[in-house]
Amino acid sequence: MDNLKPKRQPVFGNEEILKEINDVRHFICRLDLLSSVYGPRELNQKLGVLKKDMDFDSGEDDDYEEKYLCVLPDGNNIDVFCVSKDGSDLTKLCLRQPVAGLSNLIKLNKLLPHLVVGKSEYATDFFTDDPDCVYDILTDILFLPNDKDCVVIKDISKTGERETNRALKAGAVEVYERGKSEDKIDMGGGERGWPYNKCDRLRFCFEVEREQLKWFGISTLSDLIHRPHFFKLFKDCFSTFKFKKHSLLPKGYKVRGFT
User: Fold this and answer.
1) Is position 55 within any domain?
2) Please, is 186 exposed, middle or buried when counting C-beta atoms within 10 Å of its C-beta (0-12, 13-18, 19+)?
3) pLDDT tens sequence across 147-188
4) DSSP assignments along 77-102, one per residue
5) Count of domains in the chain?
């Protein structure tokens, strides 16, 4: 069966995809910070007023009993989770899209100098006028060496109708089309997403747990600020190849690097 494996060639430059991309931006789209030093009282003094989230259902959360909401002066939101169910005294601070910029993370680190990184989600946005085209090209050349199971979680229906935004997930890697946060709407059936005419980018994101971050010398928020190791983490999770279909494969067989 080894003879049936698709042949592949490294892709160092792909004119077809490059001409469709207007801009590329790298950033952290989610950050979980942990502390055994700061509880609600200390955070209230350091960050401002924390409001208890009365809609939070602790029965649906595996880790924490209480959740607080905090809006920083710069407009960034922080979700604060307290009273750990495992008996530890860890408090978790969650910064989500958009994560504070570097200058704001530096300010946060000065206010709360003992924060450690629990999880970080690195992202790259490919801005384009044709998300469909970039999605097709990128998923055709994407090679995920460490993930055997890939799920196309959302796609265009067989009739060609667009019911949701296109997306695929393979392990810690997720690729999906999206637009600006303020353009996200209720798509029906409990789904939220973006109308196609509001999609202006393709997002490639990669979630990194604490143990893997520590391998790269990232333990504290200060470590992340000084050396986020964006390139090193990304280069290990995926590659791009031009796959060649083997002559013995059936006609119409879709050759991809994550199947």
Assistant:
1) yes
2) exposed
3) 555 555 565 544 445 567 888 887 778 889 999 988 988 877
4) EEEEEEEETTS---EEEEEESSPP-H
5) 1
